[in-house]
Amino acid sequence: MISRILKSMFVVAVACAASFADEAIRFVPEVYPIGVVNQGEQKHIVLQGANTTGAEIALENVFGQGIGMSNFKFPQKIAANAAVTIEFDMDFSGMDGKIEPVVVLVAEGGKPYTANLSGLVKAPIFFGEKLFDAGFYKAGEKREWTFYVWETDKKARPDLELSPESAKQFSIKTKNVMLNVDKLDKIKEGGKVPGLKVTLTTKGLTREGWELKQKSIRKIVSFTSKKFPKATPEVLVVGYWNE
């Protein structure tokens, strides 16, 4: 339920916006502050705004432009100069760093309105590299990459295993090391940060389903962590099929 204070804010917002906008749904604040959330966390988000027009707006649909947004709740109709509340759940799995999600409201006739959000997703495990190039790749060929991993807070050594799905096409070997991560482009062993030296090896990439229709390779390699069960650490392998 919108408080009396928020109702007053919307009345002011409607009055101000109506003076310079012919047709719009506006939200307060203009960019919703998600704040800092942990990777894998789930959050219920409530957007509050107003129809700044002098006419009723009928909504056909509301959806998220991006990943992680679901279970949208919205009114089918927003009266002229009236407040509106949009609610949804957001899952921050698979995200890392700054995010700027967009919620799209589609009115009858297809006219879109947007609500902007901004936040920071904190991943507990840091990868020295997250993108690996397989080059021109023929099915069944072996590829191998080595990289370093450490916890974001730099206080303890992370634990990593391949997810069951990724283990079908990849394998890993890990070695405990101490790292110097002062320069991310020149990570060295022999520092003070406990980490892992990880060797990622293909078991022979397969091509099936939608991959048969394109020549590019895009394989997400996902990991699991017992220390951070909600985290979703992953790297990306790219390349081209050599046909």
Descriptive report:
The chain is mainly beta. It contains one helix and 19 strands. The strands form four sheets. Strands 2, 4, 6, 8, 9 and 10 form a six-stranded mixed sheet that branches. Strands 11-13-17-15-16 form a five-stranded antiparallel sheet, with no helix packed on it. The termini are far apart. Mean pLDDT is 89; it is low at 1-23.
Number of helices: 1
Number of strand elements: 19
Class inferred from helices and paired strands: mainly beta
State which percent range the strand residues make up: over 45%
Arithmetic mean of pLDDT: 89
> How far do the termini sit from each other?
60 Å
Low-confidence stretches: 1-23
What characteristic shape results from the CA principal axes? Answer: globular
- What percentage of residues falls in helices of 4 or more residues? under 10%
Brief descriptors of the model:
243 residues; mainly beta; six-stranded mixed sheet; five-stranded antiparallel sheet; 1 helix; 6% helix; 52% strand; disordered N terminus
Quick take:
Helix content is 6%, strand content 52%.
Secondary-structure blueprint:
Layout: H1 4-18, E1 25-27, E2 31-38, E3 42-51, E4 57-65, E5 69-73, E6 77-78, E7 83-91, E8 97-99, E9 102-107, E10 112-122, E11 125-127, E12 131-137, E13 144-151, E14 161-162, E15 170-180, E16 188-189, E17 193-202, E18 216-224, E19 234-241
Parallel strand pairs: 2-10, 12-19
Antiparallel strand pairs: 1-3, 3-7, 4-6, 4-9, 5-7, 8-10, 9-10, 11-13, 13-17, 14-18, 15-16, 15-17, 18-19
